[in-house]
Design goal:
The protein is α+β, with helices and mostly antiparallel strands. The chain contains 16 helices and 27 strands. β14 and β15 form a beta hairpin. It is globular, with a radius of gyration of 27 Å. The two termini are about 35 Å apart.
């Protein structure tokens, strides 16, 4: 809130007294520390080497050696909800983030919009003279707002950040990312062949944003929210980083869990009598069913290593090597950032908080994937095909994820993974370092804390109170408690007595060292919550939630179940939602525009996200380009939608019109004109698909014809994929094919159209817009 004007205004300025206070920009007190919050993605409790993991993270270890590691710090079990907690200090359902933004339900607990009553830390700090910047993953914006025609109120610059460089959604291709710079989509500055990788690019930008401030005002503090895509799928990393781990995971995930637990006990990360749960700790399709005989979800199971054949072991081990290399590569970029802060004499007075947003991911299913777009399009994985890509794993030709067994290993010693209210989903690394403010070095802290506790901790370290109003909006109280008391003493009380959990139908409640949790599978569609089995654990000593005390302490269990309902009411956590992915996807949500039969796009338009672009799936369509071709020699992309993992494009090469339809990255279907291009003005060059059938359902078959005006100049038989072209990013472009191209064009990417004028591209579609519900739902879950 600005200060009132206290000067004097008279007719003549000579008789008036100015007052600059209401107009001066805020200035932080001298000595105010910088703040860097590092948010890793899908990195479980047992992955980092400083938490006993088998993955080398020397730079994160360096941060831990200069500060504190917390062993009972918790998240919500999913990315958007946790990130809302981290930035606001309020519980996820109070933030409207009961799930990821793509799964918004339209209820207060899950509408996908962080309310203005829950201001972000950036909104608070920027009003107090602290520069704010963000790089990396946002995922706090409803999907209908992730486009240039929509409101930017929930983009980073709309929520207190002065600078932003990263991606708005849940994940992105690390080689060809879906980038936004401040409030506008941009292409990556280089290609993989030129050495590009997103983690490096984000770190370059982070350093740039810091230097932009410090080179002008060295004493102005900076709040940097640094959220790399690592280590969320796709697990993309230069091969040499994955090759560092050759053979190191050949023992399998069960043996890896044993090794990690032994290291954790040696480090004092877990109590010495901690035991490992089985790899299928809450049941399988064969051993457990829910109400009305509903089966346990098949993808949420692990195949024992002993039951794999030699080829499967080889493939699964390489998937772990690639993930490990990805995380180590991200660690090296964090090291670059820390080194830069040290080089400019800022590191000692910088509060560094490093966390993960949830446990390791089980979205790869029991077998993992080399190309997740196959799952999204109903194409079964084939072991032989996957083995053929073994040496390509992690590179631009794959869109990969490891199997569930490695999620269990990287979550050691816990059960289950991301999405679940067990510790495997919610107990994550948390490291805090502040050389100028924390005397302890390399110590462990066992106080129970949660993601909501980061904001009040940072405010206390900065000497700030929670403001009653931000941007004119009265704030609801922060629900977290400060962790600062633990900085000086390992025995200090945590200040937190209770924490509730609710995610995709799973539930949990922690209170004074005890935890009650349901065995209800996430996304099961079971419902019947009144029939849930609740288990009881004394997690102060039983961190792996292995010894169920429900039968021995029914009084304690009843107390905690009642407390869960009280907390659920206080945090507007109802209704619960365990619906299947298909049902969640079918939830009606606001749409900026209605579907139509004709779409017109112009050259130079920024890339248009797939969810808002024309839908050509399983229907006839025509793509027509209006061009001027004054002379032969024109070339380049007229229209492109998608990537090497699925998409289609219309382009000119060798004075001929070409169309390509890339079916899920498996088959490239090319149709080439049989005649040279005409010359002249306002020419119409088009590709028209006439659907003649579909097999299997949703996969259209038909004839693709090329035209110069109304003259047919080529045709071929093609099939079109039923599901999304891309899980994230890789939208529609006109006059170029940015990002990962649909095909390997003869020209240099993005192979912009030259040699003529491209006026516009129109796409006409007929029939009912087609959506393969199961595949769309699979894509949504993959984005978690």
């Amino acid at each position: 809130m600005s200060e009132p004007f206290r000067g004097v205004v008279n007719l003549d300025i000579r008789d008036s007294t100015p007052d600059w206070a209401p107009f001066a920009q805020p200035v932080a007190p001298p000595g105010t520390p910088n703040v860097v919050v590092v948010v890793l993605d899908d990195v479980g409790f047992g992955a980092l080497s400083c938490y006993g993991g088998l993955i080398d993270t020397p730079n994160i270890d360096r941060i831990a050696a200069a500060g504190l590691r917390y062993t009972q710090w918790h998240t919500t079990a999913l990315c958007s909800p946790t990130r809302a907690c981290l930035l606001t200090g309020r519980n996820h359902t109070s933030n409207g983030m009961a799930c990821i933004t793509e799964a918004a339900t339209g209820f207060p607990n899950g509408n996908g919009h962080v309310p203005p009553e829950c201001a972000t830390l950036a909104e608070v700090l920027v009003e107090r003279g602290i520069s704010t910047a963000m790089v990396g993953k946002w995922h706090l914006c409803a999907q209908d707002e992730m486009n240039l025609a929509a409101s930017k109120r929930n983009w980073p610059l709309g929520r207190g950040f002065e600078r932003f460089y990263g991606f708005l959604g849940a994940e992105t291709n690390q080689w060809y990312p879906d980038l936004v710079h401040d409030n506008h989509p941009v292409d990556a500055p280089a290609t993989p062949e030129e050495g590009y990788h997103l983690s490096v690019d984000l770190t370059d930008r982070a350093i740039e944003f810091i230097d932009d401030v410090k080179s002008i005002a060295p004493d102005r503090p900076v709040f940097l929210y640094y959220a790399p895509g690592a280590a969320h799928a796709p697990h993309h990393v230069p091969r040499e980083w994955a090759d560092r781990y050759r053979g190191r995971f050949d023992m399998g995930y069960e043996a890896a869990r044993e090794q990690i637990l032994a290291r954790q006990k040696q480090m004092g990360i877990v109590p010495p009598d901690t035991e490992l749960p089985p790899v299928n700790p809450i049941g399988t399709q064969e051993t457990r069913s829910g109400p009305d005989g509903a089966a346990f979800p098949g993808p949420d199971q692990t195949r024992p290593w002993a039951g794999l054949d030699a080829d499967e072991r080889r493939l699964f081990a390489r998937m772990a090597e690639v993930y490990a290399g990805f995380l180590s590569h991200a660690d090296a970029q964090i090291g670059r950032l820390m080194d830069h802060l040290a080089a400019i004499d800022q590191l000692d007075n910088t509060i560094v908080v490093l966390v993960s947003d949830n446990g390791a991911s089980g979205e790869g299913g029991p077998n993992g994937s080399v190309n997740e777009m196959k799952i999204v399009n109903g194409v079964p994985d084939d072991l032989a095909d996957n083995l053929a890509m073994l040496d390509e794993l992690g590179g631009p030709r794959t869109y990969n994820h490891y199997p569930t067994g490695w999620a269990m290993a990287f979550n050691t010693p816990f059960k289950m993974w991301k999405r679940y209210s067990f510790n495997g989903g919610t107990s994550d690394p948390c490291i805090i370092s502040w050389p100028a403010g924390i005397a302890a070095r390399g110590e462990v802290r066992d106080q129970y804390h949660h993601a909501v506790d980061i904001v009040p901790t940072l405010l206390q370290c900065l000497g700030l109170e929670q403001p009653q109003s931000v941007r004119g909006v009265t704030q609801i109280p922060i629900q977290g408690v400060s962790m600062q008391g633990s900085f000086a003493s390992a025995s200090a009380p945590s200040g937190r007595q209770t924490q509730f959990y609710s995610m995709l139908g799973t539930r949990g409640i922690w209170h004074d060292g005890w935890k009650a949790v349901t065995t209800h599978p996430a996304l099961s569609g079971w419902g019947h919550y009144e029939q849930d089995t609740w288990e009881l654990y004394h997690v102060d000593t039983d961190r792996s939630e292995l010894h169920d005390l429900a039968a021995e302490r029914p009084d304690k269990l009843a107390e905690l179940i009642g407390l869960w309902f009280y907390e659920a009411g206080a945090n507007q956590a109802l209704p619960l939602d365990d619906r299947s992915a298909v049902e969640i996807f079918l939830t009606p949500r606001p749409q900026l525009i209605a579907a139509r039969d004709r779409y017109v796009y112009r050259a130079g338009t920024a890339e248009i996200a797939e969810h808002i672009a024309v839908n050509v799936r399983n229907r006839s369509f025509t793509v027509g380009a209006q061009v001027d071709l004054p002379a032969p020699g024109a070339e380049g992309v007229l229209f492109a939608h998608g990537s090497r993992f699925g998409g289609h494009a219309l382009y000119i090469a060798d004075n001929r019109l070409h169309y390509v339809n890339n079916f899920v990255g498996i088959t490239e279907q090319h149709v080439e004109a049989t005649e040279d291009l005409p010359t002249g003005e306002n020419l119409i060059l088009s590709a028209s698909f006439d659907k003649t059938g579909e097999d299997p359902p949703g996969t259209a078959h038909g004839t693709l014809s090329l035209y110069h005006g109304d003259r047919k100049v080529g045709e071929g038989q093609i099939r079109t994929q039923p599901g999304l072209f891309s899980i994230a990013g890789e939208g529609l472009t006109v006059g170029r094919d940015s990002g990962d191209p649909v095909t390997r064009y003869p020209g240099t990417q993005p192979w912009a159209f030259t040699g003529g004028t491209l006026h516009r591209v129109a796409i006409d579609v007929s029939g009912t817009p087609y959506i393969d519900l199961e595949r769309e739902a699979a894509a949504m879950i993959a984005r978690e």
